[in-house]
Amino acid sequence: MFAVENISFGYPSSGSLLTDLSFTINKGDVACLLGPNGAGKTTLLRCLLGINKVQSGSIKIKGRRIGDITAKELACAMAYVPQAATTVFPHRVLDIVVMGRTPHVGFTAVPTDEDYAMAEESLAELGISHLADCQFSRISGGERQLTLIARALTQRAELFIMDEPTSSLDYGNQVRILRVIDKLAKQGYSIIMTSHFPNHAFLLCNKVLIMKNGKITAMGTPEEVVTDQILSELYTTKVRIVELDDGVSDKLKVCVPMLT
After folding, report:
1. Name one GO molecular function term (predicted).
2. Which of 100, 146, 201, 257 is 20 to 30 A away from residue 111, measured at CA?
3. pTM of the predicted model, to two decimals?
4. What is the pLDDT of residues 178-218, one digit of tens each?
């Protein structure tokens, strides 16, 4: 589905920011990118989206270099879900979601009834049809994040790139978004997400990339790489991984920071 092969990137004024990064994403994968502030996560996402042009190496989607395909083709294959934000314009939620059809609509054309039907279908898929006529800037942060995911669904791309999808959300809305991501993966979508919460890796990811100083320092399953030692070194603070057993479901691992 998606292959990053030995990419490096940097700005003339700041030197190298990413160095020799490689990984692959398969259909249905949920890959979590963990790392401290300044590790290069956002820079990497900008490279994956084709915004930053890598200095060496290649990024391929379904075997094609992203630099060799048009912006329209790339948008049909890959959808970006930013952190929940607002807008100064009084757009309805439905209008925001139908914007996902932009790659499929002609330059001078307007969305058709079919495009709006797809947008309504995405809202229904996420259980937020009741928000269709609400003003996007006036709904809650969790509802805005669900709206942006609905927009990505309407785009009909198979790969989602999500930048801290639960950032600034309360606990309940975080879980709600994580459930949606898990559901999308089970439907066959591939997802790359950044997070500052290692517990997210245990909850829904099958692949974890540990990133520090512009390099991938560890990669594998959550059980392999989300460990006491790796997290303690990554965040320069003592961390313990604890197993919970409620006697009903499989044991769940959680990350607990230690204050002493």
Report:
1. ATP binding
2. 146
3. 0.90
4. 999 999 999 999 999 999 999 999 999 999 999 999 999 99
Q: Tell me which of 3.40.50.2020, 3.30.565.10, 1.10.630.10, 3.40.50.300 is the CATH number of domain 2-257.
A: 3.40.50.300
Annotate 159-169 with b (16+ C-beta within 10 A) or e (fewer). Answer: bbbbbbbbbeb
Query: What pLDDT digit, counting tens, does each position of 72-121 carry?
Result: 899 999 999 988 676 767 899 999 999 999 989 876 778 999 999 999 99
